[in-house]
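Lab meeting minutes (informal)
Scribe: AK
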Amino acid sequence: MTVRILALVGSLRAGSHNRQLAEAAVKLAPEGAEVDLFEGLADIPFYNEDIDVEGDVPAAAARLREAAAGADAILLFSPEYNGTIPAVLKNAIDWLSRPFGASGLKDKPLAVVGTAYGQYGGVWAQDEARKAAGIAGAKVLEDIKLSIAGSVVRFAETHPSDDAEVAAQLTEVIGRIHGEATAPVAA
């Protein structure tokens, strides 16, 4: 069984190190796991219940919901903006939190990783993303963490997939998500 892991990147910048980290996850996914990098978070309007109308949901938001519905697990890549989660990632979580009680995140294993320029690698933002996703209904995998500090220097000339330490850590993260997604549900 192939486990489909939906990857959402909280940075829209073309040269984003978090996007590169997500690209590395796609490339490094072990056998039995497939990481699908979602494109289009920039096109999703800010969540507004007035436009979240059954049968008339904005197309970009509907695509996100469909992608999440088809995934077995979710992997968020979060930089840190002013000490917290980027708005584009929070907006994606907000859209996926609805409809209430039947969201695209409901009971799905979800992990948060990322890289940031600072010395802590974006841990505050990643903690905020875990909190929001958990409230939205995801089964947050609290013990799966990867916060890579000093992204501007570390990845100045090296893609994350070519950094042996990062590649090994990311492969382990994906393997653990795969294990959670295939684990039998406790009765």
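Next up, CB showed the second protein from the same session:
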Amino acid sequence: MPIHPNARITEAALRAGARAREAGRRLVRHGTDTDDVVVGLALLAAVGTVDDVPYIQTIGLLSCTFGPLAADAPERLPDGAESLLWLADRVAGWGRAHVVEALCRLAHGHSDVRHWLLRRAADGDFLNGYFAGEVARASALDQALTGCPHAEEALAAHLRHLDRLGPSPSRYCIAAMLARNLGEHGDEGSVAPVRRWRTHRDGYLALPDRDDWFETARNAPAADDPEIVRLVETVASDLGLRTLDDPAPSSEG
């Protein structure tokens, strides 16, 4: 059984109406096989009511299997955002990723959802990378940063943290991309005004320009890290950074 929303199952549930709803409830509550419960959850996702939210939330806690449908079901129901926020605070892994993506779709018009996305969507799991862009757009991250009175302190602290940790391929990418996006020639929609971030941009730009950070970038292809190659090819010229074809720093002096 597909664990993601399925158009054919949805169409069948809509044709059956109340019968599908009753079948969904019985399968979610009493099903003894995973596929049975998935069918029940798919039916409730299509024709369930607010009375079914407790069933959807409870089975959604087993989010590795039931997360996609449990995230999809509340979207069309009243107070669906509140139900998803409850679930988002209690699940992890791929299930959480699906719930966060659903919240992104509901963020417009829900200030509580946007606040949650800004403050709690990124929990440090590597799966955050799958929805980071959606979260940034849905939560209007650029506006939040521009209006934050402590933005400069946060950037300064992050810069000190990167400097203290030292070079690595991922930190090279982070420093270079932040320098690019804080600059006057950054991506469309870069945080402005430029003068507010110039000091921090210069600080981020100085890190990948150091010899030890540059050598880390040069060695990354040998370590099978194509992200470094892609980044240098696309943004090095914009930032004035050395490219991977440039000669290695001299050991003299």
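CB comment: The CA atoms of residues 24 and 40 lie 4 Å apart.
No objections, moving on.
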